[in-house]
Structure prediction request, 235 residues.
Amino acid sequence: MVLEILTDAHILPLLQSVKSSIEWLKSNPAPDLIFLDVHLADGQSFEIFKEVTVTSPIIFTTAFDQYALEAFKVNSIDYLLKPIKKDELQRSIDKYLNLTAPKEPTIDIEKLLSSLQPKSTSYKDRFAVRYGEHIRTIETKDAAYFYTENKINFLVTKEGKRFSIDYNLDQLEELLEPKAFFRINRQFIIGFHSLAEMFTYSKSRVLVKLNPPSKLETIVSTERSASFKAWLDGE
Prediction:
């Protein structure tokens, strides 16, 4: 889609993780423009700025409008909400092309990171769910965990009742209070109160038993194990 607008643009390799992005930015000249997703394979893209100074203008993309998105405009060209529409992409690129400064602006990283931290009042406190022809609401505090299976996303209550929901796990990560919920892998976000037992597993991973029980295997992925242990410790 970018090449349809910038026909002479040279597209650099797509980087999927925070780690690979840091390595690439440290060893290559700064690109003219960066499209940066909020969520990468191994964490949030804001971690990149703690390791490397980014001087290129950035257009952020995000799956859900939850953070203080106006902050993006202070320190970057724009943000785009997924799924990205061509006319919105066109407007963002127009902003980039209309820049008059001789040098690309250096992002105020501290201000960006501070502005993008979710406020306590922004966390979702209930979900509307459907079952049959009925609709009801479930308080977030009554949710034990969330998971995805066969491309369907579910909320499981403390009572063990399961409901399909309209939010995917990437969206839920931004909606849920991080002290109360943690994403252990690509398939599960668990509540602290749902932890029944934990066991050491291979490669520093942790096997988690949930209450109410899940028929699916719940193992903290290798890349999330350190953060999971910090979460348990209240950090």
Q: What stands out?
A: Helices lie at 2-5, 18-27, 70-75, 86-97, 109-115, 169-175, 225-232. The CA atoms of residues 127 and 174 lie 14 Å apart. The radius of gyration is 20 Å.
